[in-house]
Each structure stands twice: as C-alpha cells, then as structure tokens.
Specification:
The protein is of the alpha+beta class and 230 residues long. It has five helices and 13 strands. Strand 8 and strand 9 (162-163) form a beta hairpin.
C-alpha cells in the first residue's frame, strides 16, 4: 500500500464515523450503568432511623415496623436508673438514613445487674493485684479489713457480711471488702516471747531460788541406829 492511499483511508469520513459511534456507545453504557445502579439500589433515597434510646423494647419494635425497618437485640446492659427492657444504645444512630428492611441493632437494659465470678485471688495475690483485677471487672471496693498476717496479702473477700470463695458469682453493683494482712506476722515470730521465767537477784548478783529445799526421808538403817536400846 502506498503512502498516499494509507493517508486517504486514515482521513476518510467512514473511519472516523465508526470511531465516533464506538465512543458514543461506550459513554452511553457508562451513563446507563451509573444511573441504572442508582435506580436499582434506590441511591439517595432512605429512611431516617428514629431515636430509640429510652424506649421500651416493644415500643421500639412497633416504631421500626411502621418505618419498614427491623430490630435485632445485639447486647444487654444494666442501668439501675432506667426501667428494665428499655433501649440503652442503637446502631445505626439516630438520623442515619438506611434502606427499607435494614436491621437496627439495639442494646437492651437488663432487669438485674450482671454477676461475675470471683477470680482466684484469695490467698493467692497481694492487695494491689487483687484490687486491679476486681476494679477491671467493674467491682467497687470498700476500705480493706486488716487481720494479723503477712503484710498486704489477701486472706479473703467479704460481700455484705458473707465470706466469699473463688468462683462465687456476685452482682457487679455489690461492693466487696478485701481481708488483708497487716504485717504483724510478716516474719512469723513477731509475737512469740522467747524470754524465760523471771528470777529475783540477790545483792551478790546470784539468782535467788524461791523453791524450798526438800530433804529425803531417813533410811531404815539410820532409823534403827537412832532407836534407844532397851
């Protein structure tokens, strides 16, 4: 093919018409896909999530059903200032726009405070370690009760006057009291008296024995020898 023929075909209206048509088709496809997906997914349309906090679970369920939304309990908590079975938290939050049929996850207030098992800290940890573990679990601690024993060693736990054991389940809002050693027996010999009996000392510095001297009874020979002769 000669150069002149190649240039004539390259500049022909037929070739450029086909290229323009293909470009139009590609643009039309992109625009169609974009708007088609928006129509199919209802982009820009949504239902505003109502504020459910503080509502009873039954009321929240009814309200969401009216808005064509679903409710799912994802967790439970405890707030003694609020009535049982009310909504403590929700996700998505209030005002968020969601599609029809979307699930709203809620946290419901428990009728009683949650209980936790006492960890293995009795006679197995210091007061500092026990305090850290119990407060991390959410327990509140009263001032410790001190007893004779190794300093700062935990010898027990009480709750409302009852002695607890490892594994006992206690409501989280019940305060605990640690029974802690005061250090008086830290070395094991603090209150042991090693001093012997007390003695009176005479002027010469010798001990005065207060016991009476006891003499042995006379033997028979001595008794016979002392008898008067008849």
């Amino acid at each position: 093919m000669k150069t002149k023929e190649f240039l004539s075909k390259l500049t022909s209206k037929y070739l450029w018409g086909n290229i323009a048509a293909m470009c139009c088709v590609i643009v039309a496809l992109c625009v169609g896909v974009k708007y088609g997906l928006e129509i199919y997914t209802h982009h820009g349309e949504g239902i505003a999530v109502p504020d459910l906090k503080g509502m009873k679970y039954s009321e929240a369920t009814y309200l969401l059903s009216q808005n064509k939304l679903r409710i799912i309990v994802s967790d439970s908590g405890y707030n003694k200032r609020l009535p049982a079975d009310c909504i403590l938290a929700q996700s998505p939050g209030f005002g968020t726009k969601v599609k029809e049929g979307h699930a709203i996850y809620v946290t419901v207030n428990s009728p009683s405070s949650p209980s936790f098992a006492i960890p293995d800290i009795i006679d197995n940890s210091s007061a500092r370690e026990a305090t850290a573990k119990l407060t991390a679990m959410g327990f509140k601690l009263l001032p410790p009760k001190y007893v004779d024993g190794e300093k700062d060693w935990v010898y027990g736990i009480t709750c409302r006057g009852r002695r607890l054991a490892t594994g006992d389940r206690i409501p989280i809002d019940y305060p605990l009291t640690l029974i802690v050693g005061d250090g008086k027996y830290a070395d094991g010999f603090a209150d042991i008296d090693f001093s012997g009996p007390e003695y009176d000392i005479d002027e010469t510095g010798n001990d005065i024995d207060e016991f009476e001297e006891v003499t042995a009874p006379p033997s028979e020979e001595e008794t016979v020898g002392d008898k008067p002769a008849f």
